Write the structure tokens for this entry.
Amino acid sequence: MYVHNAFKIDRPRAIALLRQRAFGMLVVPAPNAPAAVHVPFLVNEGPNEKLSLELHIARANSLHTMIGDGGKVLLICQGADAYISPDWLGVPNQVPTWTYQAVHLTGTVRRQPDEETPAHLVRLSAYFEQRLLPKQPWTMDKLDDDRRTMLQKVIVPIVIEVETIEAQHKLIQHKGETEHTGAIAGLRGGLDAGSHVIADLMQETARQKFGGFG
């Protein structure tokens, strides 16, 4: 991913976005064209800033056979995004642009042993269920034994040992206060949630850049 210096975010912010979204596109090489699958994932940080992602692929999806142990993959995690109209920016000679959050990870795949599948599913469901508190969390023991055993057999859990991280928040940081003021107002007038998330992020970066901003 090309990362403009003005838009680059540091490792902690990249990992924060990964944890917040916890969903992305896994892209793998294939004989005729790249193949991809959309997956939830868990982020694990080990010693010496070692980063890994834990996820699974349906066994019926041939993608897992294309990578195997030691295969190289790309995972793309995208956050909020929004269109910016030049009419909002308040200065002449502007063009349309798109704002967004994105993290690209490359790494090596390691298949987890089948005996790790139950613990993997417990960790994955627990992570997302805790977001629904105070709802009583759903747990794997709510499944009948036969159903639980069957479901564990139809997935292939893998770990991606992360080797590179490229991340950016493209939020017109290279433009001035007038442009920020107009873009934020325009975004806040929209109805989609992504526009409001981007407006909040732009407000934060504008406050840091211009001081005392809105």
In short: The mean pLDDT is 93. The chain has one domain: 11-86+96-173. Strands lie at 23-28, 35-40, 42-45, 51-58, 72-84, 97-111, 155-170.
